[in-house]
C-alpha cells in the first residue's frame, strides 16, 4: 500500500456492479466481504477494494474522514 492509495479510496468510484458510481470508501461491508470470499478483481480496482475491505473489517473507516475534505480545501481546483 502507498499513502496515495488511501486518498484514492475517497475519490475513486466503483466502476461496475450493484454499487457503480459510489465511492469505494462508501461501499457497504457485506459487499466488500463478498469480494473477499469470491475474489477481488485484478488490477488497481481489486487492490483498492482489498484495502477497503481490510480497513472496514478492522473498524478503521474513520481514519479516512480527514481525507474526505472538499478538493478546494486540499489545494486542488
UniProtKB/TrEMBL annotation:
This is Cytoplasmic protein. InterPro entries: QSregVF_b.
Amino acid at each position: 500500500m502507498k499513502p496515495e492509495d488511501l486518498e484514492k479510496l475517497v475519490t475513486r468510484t466503483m466502476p461496475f456492479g450493484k454499487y457503480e458510481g459510489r465511492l469505494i470508501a462508501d461501499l457497504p461491508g457485506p459487499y466488500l466481504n463478498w469480494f473477499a470470499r469470491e475474489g477481488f478483481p485484478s488490477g488497481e480496482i481489486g487492490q483498492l477494494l482489498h484495502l477497503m475491505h481490510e480497513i472496514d473489517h478492522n473498524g478503521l473507516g474513520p481514519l479516512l474522514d480527514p481525507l474526505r475534505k472538499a478538493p478546494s480545501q486540499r489545494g486542488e481546483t
